[in-house]
């Protein structure tokens, strides 16, 4: 009798573990919607750039309003592309982390979309988001009319903060690269001994 109840409990345990393990497939929803959102943003970016390219420029005033609008459209399109890239990296990363490794990527021998951990995925996303913010700030600065000294100070502070964040990201990336190289070397040394 005791052996029979242990067998029943073990079956329930295995069923529950399988249920928990298969819950990871709910991650397919954010993967699919991230891919669809990336496609939509790439389409919007393309339309934005096309709108900038089709504007008529005034040869007598090469730095006039049409030129500023053209640059704003093109920068806006690049911004949409960058956000689309963030969504692509997110979709590929969480799919590989939670569902399965994408086999077809080995044919291309590319590791740009590969993320081996949540920390690595987060790092890639942060880097692209910072670049998108830089592009977005640049687009906003095209339309800012400087009327007083405080406007120049705010713009300078924004540029300084972005520069500092980019520098800190570079430091973080350099340290993590050195750490992974150091740990790989220590692993190799321990195998040799």
Automatic annotation (TrEMBL):
Coiled coil: none annotated. It comes from the Bacteria. The chain crosses the membrane at residues 21-51, 71-95, 125-146, 152-169. Keywords: Membrane, Transmembrane, Transmembrane helix. It holds the Pfam family UPF0114. This is YqhA family protein. PANTHER family: OS06G0710300 PROTEIN.
């Amino acid at each position: 009798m005791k052996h029979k109840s242990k067998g029943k409990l073990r079956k329930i345990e295995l069923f529950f573990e399988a249920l928990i393990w298969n819950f990871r497939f709910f991650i397919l929803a954010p993967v699919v919607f991230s891919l669809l959102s990336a496609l939509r943003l790439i389409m919007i970016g393309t339309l934005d750039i096309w709108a900038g390219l089709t504007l008529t420029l005034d040869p007598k005033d090469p730095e006039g309003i049409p030129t500023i609008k053209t640059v704003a459209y093109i920068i806006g399109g690049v911004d949409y592309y960058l956000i689309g890239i963030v969504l692509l990296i997110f979709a590929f990363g969480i799919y590989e982390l939670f569902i399965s490794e994408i086999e077809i990527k080995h044919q291309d021998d590319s590791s740009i979309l590969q993320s081996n951990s949540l920390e690595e995925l987060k790092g890639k996303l942060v880097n692209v988001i910072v670049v998108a913010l830089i592009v977005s700030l640049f687009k906003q600065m095209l339309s800012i009319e400087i009327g007083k000294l405080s406007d120049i100070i705010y713009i300078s502070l924004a540029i300084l903060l972005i520069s500092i964040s980019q520098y800190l990201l570079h430091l973080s990336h350099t340290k993590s690269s050195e750490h992974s190289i150091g740990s790989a070397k220590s692993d190799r040394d321990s195998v040799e001994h």
